[in-house]
Amino acid sequence: MSRSAAEFRRAKLVLPGGVNSPVRAFKAVGGSPRVIQRASGCTLFDVDGRAYTDYIGSWGAMIVGHAHPVVVEAVTRTARDGLSFGTSTALETDLAEEVIRRMPSIERVRLVNSGTEAVMSALRVARAATGRSKVIKFAGCYHGHSDGLLVRAGSGPATLGLPDSPGVTRAVAGDTLIADFNDSDSVREHFKICGDDIAAILVEPVAGNMGVVPPSSVFLQELRKLADTYGAILIFDEVMTGFRVARGGAQSLSGVRPDLTTIGKVIGGGLPVGAYGGRKALMELVAPLGPVYQAGTFSGNPVTMAAGLATLSLLDQNAYARLEAASARLAHGLSEALSSNDQPGVVQRVGSMLTLFFGTDRVDNMKHATQAAHDTFARFFNGLLDRGYHLPPSGYEPWFVSLAHTDSVIDQTISTANVVLRELEAAASPIGC
Ligand code: PMP
Prior knowledge:
CATH topology of the largest domain: Aspartate Aminotransferase, domain 2
Order of helices and strands: HEEEHHEHEHHEHEHEHEEHHHEEHHEEH
Distance between the termini: 38 Å
Number of domains: 2
Radius of gyration: 22 Å
CATH superfamily of the largest domain: Type I PLP-dependent aspartate aminotransferase-like (Major domain)
Number of helices: 15
Helix content: 25-40%
Bound molecules: 4'-deoxy-4'-aminopyridoxal-5'-phosphate
Number of strands: 14
Strand content: 5-15%
Shape: globular
């Protein structure tokens, strides 16, 4: 048995399913997760000493690559001066200023410890500002695991507002209305029925959690109009896309200005983080200025702030141009690999996030994403893993490209993908005589 398998067996005796986040388990792809010991640049090393080119990137956070010397130096220097004070620091103001410089819709920002917390808190502000209770979210979008947001459509019970997860009460789930991504009519319908009780529209402005699904050219504009018409708050959840798809996040690509934005991942440089911010008048509702209570022992932690600031300092326009070029090269190579191996599928990409959906030529929403050939993805995943490439272990996730993914790494990935696709094709062909 490999050391990874032995470690995972040990983990299962003390951690539910052997993991601390379900996305890490290999449930959708089969087999046993690799237990990682260390990482550098775009490479993960497991406890057996095997190397893997990494396309998980800690689910998007590691945009400059693992253990970047500038980030590690900032973290160690800051750690030497103390890990957490529970008081104000200059570093948290530095990070807030940098976020606001890059995302002008954010006039005031509150730092928290996870994306879950950021979205939960932004929604609380929206409800307080409007005095309303309901939120519209989109099937297939993920906004963390707070109770009311664990509801999604795609299945009958979810569209009825029943909890997706046991433990979420019917009352809480009932405040979440489900609409379809890229379908503003499905949002309009909700407003027609109960517009005066809808506090917010919450959306990933580029969906990442059903695989990468770009918004149509008018979708986000329509959401902005509907929110304005009905007096609801428009919240962009940019926990994944913020400072990843572009310097100013997905909102800078669409030109649509949300009232509130949630961010995370990249701004923590690999340490736990989240943040929510937006219009000054809304953020002034937050305690201690206003009545909306939200607090955190570790919020604005100096070590996290240092990691985030160091990461952002490496993300200048030139860095985004390099990310764009590397990611376009990968997407193009994978598309060609699909067609040259007669494998139906499509690569959808925005900036340095991309998803290869098998068995379909377009994915606009969760229903399409569900119809993709996830069994083919599982075989593709395992073929690449065996050859030293670690994709996210699910066909509903983006692959994340970092600044450490050089052209030669990308080209090797493409040629290995070709090998695996040829194998899949051979396995699918009837055996000749
Ligand atoms: N929102 C989005 C769009 C996310 O992608 C995620 C996590 N993948 C979250 C919220 C939750 O963030 P966290 O895991 O830090 O709680």
